[in-house]
Design goal:
The complex is a heterodimer of chains A (404) and B (495). Chain A has 404 residues and is an alpha+beta fold. Chain A folds into three domains: 179 residues, 2-Layer Sandwich (Uridine Diphospho-n-acetylenolpyruvylglucosamine Reductase, domain 3); 101 residues, Alpha-Beta Plaits, CATH 3.30.70.2190; 72 residues, Alpha-Beta Plaits, CATH 3.30.70. Helices cover 33% and strands 23% of the residues of chain A. Chain A is built from 16 helices and 18 strands. In chain A, strands 4-5-9-7-8 form a five-stranded antiparallel beta sheet. In chain A, strands 12-13-11-14 form a four-stranded antiparallel beta sheet. In chain A, strands 16-17-15-18 form a four-stranded antiparallel beta sheet. With 495 residues, chain B is an alpha+beta fold. Helix content of chain B is 36%, strand content 19%. Chain B has a seven-stranded antiparallel beta sheet, sandwiched between helices. In chain B, helix 11 crosses helix 14. Chain B is globular, with a radius of gyration of 24 Å. The N and C termini of chain B lie far apart (50 Å). The chains are: A alpha+beta (404), B alpha+beta (495). Chains A and B meet through helix 1, strand 8, helix 5, strand 10 and helix 9 of A and strand 9, helix 9, helix 10, helix 12 and helix 18 of B. The complex binds flavin-adenine dinucleotide (FAD) (2 copies). One flavin-adenine dinucleotide binds next to strand 3, helix 6 and strand 10 of chain B.
Amino acid sequence: MHTLFPASAAELREIVAEAVAARRPLEILGGGSKRDYGRPVEAEAAVSTAELRGITLYEPEELVMSALAGTPLTEIEAVLAEHRQQLAFEPPDYGPLLGGEAGRQTIGGVFACNLSGPRRLQAGAARDHILGVRCVTGFAEEMKAGGRVMKNVTGYDLPKLLCGSFGTLAVLTEITFKVLPAAAAEGTLLLCGSDERTLAGLLRRATGTPFEPSGAALLPALAAGRSQVPAVRRAGRPVAAIRVEGPPASTDYRLSRLQGALVQPDIEAHRLDPEQSQRLWREIRDVALLSRGRALWRLSLPPTAGAELIPWYRDLGAEWLLDWAGGLVWLAPPAAYAFRAAELRRALAGRDGHATLVRAPREIRERIEVFEPQPPALQRLGERIKLSFDPLRILNRGRMVAGL
Amino acid sequence: MRLPEPDERILAARTRIVAELRRIVPGEGVIDDPSELAAYECDGLTAYRNRPLAVVLPETREQVAAVLRFCNAEGVKVVPRGAGTSLSGGALPVADGIVLGMSKFNRILEIDVDNRTVTCQPGVTNLAITRAVEHLGFYYAPDPSSQIACTIGGNVAENSGGVHCLKYGLTTNNVLGVELVLPDGEIVRLGGKHLDAGGYDLLGVVTGSEGLLGVVTEVVVRILPKPETARAVLMAFASVEAAGDCVASIIANGIIPAGLEMMDRPAILAAEDFCAAGYPREAEALLICELDGPAAEVEDSIGVVAAIARQHGAFLVRASESEEERLRFWAGRKNAFPAVGRISPDYYCMDGTIPRRRLAEVLARMREMSQTYGLRVANVFHAGDGNLHPLILYDANVPGELEKAEAFGADILRLCVEVGGVLTGEHGVGIEKRDLMPVMFTESELAQQQRLKCAFDPQQILNPGKVFPTLHRCAELGRVHVHRGELRFAHLPRF
Ligand SMILES: Cc1cc2nc3c(=O)[nH]c(=O)nc-3n(C[C@H](O)[C@H](O)[C@H](O)COP(=O)(O)OP(=O)(O)OC[C@H]3O[C@@H](n4cnc5c(N)ncnc54)[C@H](O)[C@@H]3O)c2cc1C
Ligand SMILES: Cc1cc2nc3c(=O)[nH]c(=O)nc-3n(C[C@H](O)[C@H](O)[C@H](O)COP(=O)(O)OP(=O)(O)OC[C@H]3O[C@@H](n4cnc5c(N)ncnc54)[C@H](O)[C@@H]3O)c2cc1C
């Protein structure tokens, strides 16, 4: 495929204008680390933001940063770390998960996919941190939306709409987002038990305490056994992990209180030091504990539902783990079930939430609904919204919905 | 303030329209008696009034859907209304349209502690949600000062904030789902008890859409466990600059307080006269910083905040030692509006946001404007997130003062945009700031926002005349005109 690398937003607009005039769809790339996430795009040419690079504004005491869309996330995280700040939504790195390298994604890609890690539970998602954007729409117009201040209700919140739209509404050229102080310390409480649903219940209890867990995940014995963290790997049983972050004294206090509140006779508790804790949550964040060879589904559910379905994950013979206290399920079914999308989604019917096929060979992703099909009224509304930004369906045609 | 010309055809058909609406919502649910309509003529922005065709008070989402279907087919405009506390005229009626009052949607439907959610109808007040869960140790975080009266539906429509949104976010960060009735009567659910959107984040755009995209008939919110302790620190400064620098240092030190509020001298004096909160009258600026969490952590943070305040020359630094004292510190701030209301016949509340470090400059220029216009101004400020509430004092009975206050307000908002901020931080554009939208957005940016409106509401029956200074027909907005060749990049490969 032919890929163009504009060096400015104006050049990018020009490329989109050419594509619109020629009625030729364009694929939008940050560079392509998550190209294999979602439906394959129906386009013969691509435009990459890789050369739109650089942090354009950073005011640590105002908690705000702006960067051109192609800026590598690693660059942003390094600059933030110098000021002991961070992206609180803990963006994951799915590079390796999708068969590529780690550490190469762009900030545009992160927001376009609304990807958030374990801390989403406490700190919100990528969409909760976006403040403003500059972008080029399918009308080949440059526009801005939102702003650089923390509170803004002037006009519709288009930044949120663009966040998670996978490049199907506009190409982001610059993004302004909220940054927050990084915690001075962290620690993790491990609860090893025999019954997964009991452990999942403890995660939910933990999130109902005032001790502010910033991570709550459940690893079945198989996933735990793959961890590089010895205390987790050697558990030999399902492990519930609860993270707290903050000043050191507070972290210790809250871990003790959580342990006191949650430990039961048949449950064994361990603590991870900050370094081990960091390692474990990176594994959870990047879904590194499930077999790389299998197709991978991501279910977003009410926390109770994520736990109720545990017997079903087992019946399927799936590998799985729960994050967000049960609200996020990573499910890797064996080959025989992996692509029976309709069947899988039927099992979730009657519950809030949805299932997305995150990893599968291209020919499969072309054939089945990668994103949860929407009820008819919502689907029609979604179509009208797509066309309101991109009437000729030039941008990332087919990424989210076939033909659109 | 100009509203779209009423449609004579609709005005003429009033009797028939009311009869049809009565068929959908029988009994007391349709109000057309002029004396009863008076109560709905305005919202919290009382300077503007308009009598609607009728007020409809549905009780079920099916009735809402049927009313919208009927109005959409007939071209009758619809203005949704919660408690009518909007400060931007969002719920101001139009003469050729109905007000769709959501007051009968007043039930809490489910408290789900396990998933930490409350599901309720949109007419439930903000405070009622916290009241319903506090015995379980939970609360709903966004706390607008109007929380006793304003509804959660109105909060969703305005994306309302409160003094605790620095740490816990605005409405948009605390709402997980809504049921929305579209203008054509279709009922859709956006989000739910799960966390991430399935397709486009429509919940994200509906929140803060000021009743222009659909009518909210159910809301799912996230509730939070009550912190173990909460304490407030009161700090007084001899200059606004010093207080502003203190705020920046607190945040630069990695502390995100639960609330961080500033008041200037006129606001301090008004509050002190109103409720004797114990604020020093000689202060030029006062900060209230609330810290919450485990007792030991709060104690530590108070130490850090107090030290920073002293470094910046605070002449009074006091940490609350009891819950009563904490509430007393807040009392002055929370009553700032009524307090100002007592020292002036009328006041006009503005709501711009600025980058925090421009505060001193903005306040100085506001003082100059205050002299030019000959109107006093008092400032309360969500200092942590840069959201400024200048209260312009005026007397509506003095001819020309309202117009002067409005012109002053518009100048303040232009100044906010000029220094990198925005027209409104939490009160919404409504009718009030509609004509200032071009200060922030180009014509094509406004056109794109209106295209989104058209995707939801192609007949544009919902809350017309609000937010957008110029209405365009949807078909006209949808046309593609490609501007090519304005910039030629010879090195760009053509394809
Ligand atoms: C030719 C080439 C090949 C590469 N191959 C790899 C590889 O195999 N693996 C790897 O990890 N890295 C690869 N890279 C490295 C690359 O620089 C970064 O990984 C890349 O920028 C990351 O893309 P992303 O993850 O940010 O988003 P992508 O994976 O590019 O995109 C994710 C989704 O977001 C959308 N999107 C991305 N940016 C925007 C935007 N600005 N506006 C709107 N929508 C957007 C996309 O359309 C897509 O739907 C490659 C780079 C180049 C130039
Ligand atoms: C004294 C006072 C203090 C205030 N303090 C704050 C504050 O601290 N922070 C803050 O953010 N705001 C504050 N406000 C403003 C106001 O209270 C908020 O904007 C509030 O959210 C409005 O809620 P409401 O129920 O009164 O809505 P209304 O005023 O009735 O309506 C507001 C808007 O919402 C729309 N709407 C209402 N219900 C629905 C629905 N069910 N579906 C679709 N659209 C709907 C209306 O069409 C209108 O555009 C204050 C107001 C007053 C009077």
